Amino acid sequence: xxxxxxxxxxxxxVVVIGAxxxxxxxxxxxxxxGIPVTLFEMRPLKMTPAHKTPGFAELVCSNSLGADETxxxxxxxxxxxxxxxxxxxxxxxxxxxxxxxALAVDRQAFSEGVTGALTSEPLVTxxxxxxxxxxxxxxxxxSGPLTSEPLAGSLSRLVxxxxxxxxxAVAPVVTAESIDMTRAYRGGRRGLGDDYINCPMTREEYExxxxxxxxxxxxxxxxxxxxxxxxEGCLTVEVIASRGVDTLRFGPxxxxxxxxxxTGEEPWAxxxxxxxxxxxxxxxxxxxxxxxxxPEQERVxxxxxxxxxxxxxxxxxxxxxxxxxxxxxxDPFLRLKNRDDLFLAGQVTGVEGYMESTAMGLVxxxxxxxxxxxxxxxxxxRETAIGSLLxxxxxxxxxxxxxxxxxxxxxxxxxxxxxxxxxxxxxxxxRSLEALKKFIxxxxxxxx
Length: 448
Prior knowledge:
Layout: E1 3-4, E2 14-17, H1 21-32, E3 37-40, E4 64-67, H2 73-83, H3 87-94, E5 96-97, E6 102-105, H4 107-119, E7 124-127, E8 139-141, H5 149-159, E9 164-169, E10 173-175, E11 185-186, E12 197-201, H6 203-215, H7 237-242, E13 269-275, E14 282-285, H8 294-301, E15 312-314, E16 318-323, H9 326-329, E17 335-336, E18 339-344, H10 354-373, E19 376-377, H11 385-394, H12 421-442
Parallel strand pairs: 2-3, 2-8, 3-7, 8-18
Antiparallel strand pairs: 1-19, 4-6, 5-6, 9-16, 10-14, 10-15, 11-12, 12-13, 13-14, 17-18
Helix pairs in contact: 1-10, 2-12, 3-4
């Protein structure tokens, strides 16, 4: 089922605000379909609290884009984006660094690849300027979780409801040579690969660390970040630690499947380090997003035995995230319900995660292309990961809308129950990719 676009605007271009993952993907997909794009990016004229460079698609949280096999919901989403010719996924594969079954990237190489592709595209005009007001359409707002206050205020007035916020955070990074490998060992869970460096702790070491982390001084927040609501999918490590002595051991410091080859035993707790760059000279602390004061971070994280002499080349930063109450604000095509020429994309829609944001950029681009060409809006199959995310954004059932990563719970039920998770994922993947291929085949030529 498709819905007819209201007017034929053939010949018009599209304004895209923000050159993050979603905005970069949207600009690329529009240009691929012969539609001129004016891409606004305020950096470096105006920086955010988390960004450090003027590059497009700069990753400010983890350098991992998640699982890369169809035995997970995230892998299914990537398989769909592969079929749809995603720029972000293509550049991620080109700048890949070892991370087991996950897709992790060299941040700098990844950003440079995306920036180069868009700045060399004749149909994309890049404007380094802050847009302080929502523009006339057709336009896509993909300004991300750190939307500037003037633009956020303009959007808030337009939708008629207060934008919500939660806190997102960046994990610290250490140099490889400063890791004490006499107190650490390489290995993946259950002996799968050796891409991760594991920093074990005894019970005594762990409990001292947990207590120090829970009581450490947190960095002050700006006035606009005073809201204490946390998004459960991206809690800071100190918040997890404050919820109980064992919460870290059942979360980011879970030792299951990480036997120490020197003892043959699983340690009491483990901090995992993941390669950060292509050269393998930098590693980040997996799951250790934090908002502690910087001196506190160095003090507490050096209580990890293998990191007692670590060189921290980047410390954690906590920052605001902004998103709309999608079921009330957006129609099924990512348009504002009171502006039929204005689309949202990325995390501002209420999805969470790098690839989820990318997917919403792609969806917004196809819908904007349909608007410009006077075509029907594509209706994404509900069986796909993309269709499932769109279903979450349209779901009026939750009492309090919250951002969501792709997960199997969002997919429609399978006709036959599968006992094992991997088998269930595989069946979802087969159904999803079959539906997506049919969807692509049925798209009008101008939208392919």
